[in-house]
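Design a sequence for this backbone.
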């Protein structure tokens, strides 16, 4: 509901949502279809809420307008002036999901090489010569090379020969903090304030055990570091109190932070996933993925299906 109609983010989020539920059920991965409220805390936000509703409907998303009575009945702690409900939104245990994918690779005779640095790759005749290192340097030959290195995708792409520089996006680091809540979780659904161009706001999330957390915020950083800025607590308190006045600040504690690999600058509008094939950059056998941030987890199986079908 947040992305342009014909964007890759829309296509893969909608398709990936269905694939992820199916995969999680098949593999017995912990997950739950919780639903999500997208809320307006002030009357001046209702116009943007309507835009999200129309965008979602245009994209084929199951999205419903909720009356204040319906919201209050389902989420009595919320203080809002309007809301939409997305019944297909859910949560999944991401470590379990990653472990399952790892098992799929190994069961299909794939090899996962931990603590291994990618150094460079050069196309030679019908294969790539790929230089790597762990304690020693070694070489791999492969007909197909896929760059899906996330935060490191710019560094990887810039060392592929003969890829031209114009096909490598600059990665901008968007850091986000999460605070956890030590009190009782009063919510049955995820709660999302209205998004900005760069972020979906300080939303209410929880894991399978119902541990409540808030985030992420967004701060643009020059280097990758996961130090937690505890001075952000007042900003979080103010934002959360807009829609949950009953939140007790003393129960809010630092949890963790992450970094999103964005291909737009802080001053630019949201950019789509970048997935380049040989028809784009003319390097046979090379597929370049960059800017795979939100909704990356939801989209992941759909992206994998798309890339493998193109191969």
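Sequence:
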């Amino acid at each position: 509901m947040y992305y342009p109609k014909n964007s890759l983010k829309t296509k893969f989020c909608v398709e990936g949502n269905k694939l992820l539920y199916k995969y999680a059920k098949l593999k017995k991965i912990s997950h739950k279809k919780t639903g999500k409220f997208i809320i307006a805390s002030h009357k001046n936000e209702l116009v943007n809420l309507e835009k999200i509703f129309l965008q979602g409907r245009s994209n084929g998303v199951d999205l419903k307008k909720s009356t204040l009575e319906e919201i209050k009945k389902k989420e009595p702690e919320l203080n809002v002036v309007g809301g939409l409900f997305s019944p297909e939104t859910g949560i999944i245990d991401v470590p379990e999901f990653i472990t399952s994918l790892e098992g799929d690779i190994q069961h299909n005779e794939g090899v996962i090489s931990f603590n291994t640095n990618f150094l460079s790759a050069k196309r030679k005749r019908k294969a790539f010569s790929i230089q790597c290192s762990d304690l020693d340097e070694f070489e791999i030959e492969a007909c197909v090379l896929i760059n899906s290195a996330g935060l490191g995708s710019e560094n990887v792409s810039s060392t592929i020969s003969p890829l031209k520089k114009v096909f490598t996006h600059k990665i901008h680091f968007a850091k986000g903090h999460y605070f956890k809540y030590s009190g009782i979780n009063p919510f049955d659904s995820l709660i999302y304030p209205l998004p900005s161009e760069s972020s979906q706001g300080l939303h209410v999330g929880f894991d399978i055990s119902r541990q409540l957390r808030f985030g992420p915020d967004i701060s643009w950083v020059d280097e990758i570091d996961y130090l937690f800025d505890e001075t952000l607590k007042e900003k979080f308190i103010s934002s959360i109190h807009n829609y949950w006045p009953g939140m007790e600040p003393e129960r809010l504690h630092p949890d963790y932070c992450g970094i999103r690999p964005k291909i737009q600058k802080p001053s630019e509008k949201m950019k789509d996933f970048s997935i380049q094939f040989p028809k784009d950059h003319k390097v046979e056998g090379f597929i370049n993925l960059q800017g795979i941030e939100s909704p990356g987890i939801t989209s992941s199986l759909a992206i994998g299906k798309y890339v493998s079908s193109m191969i």
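Residues 62 and 224 are 37 Å apart (CA to CA).
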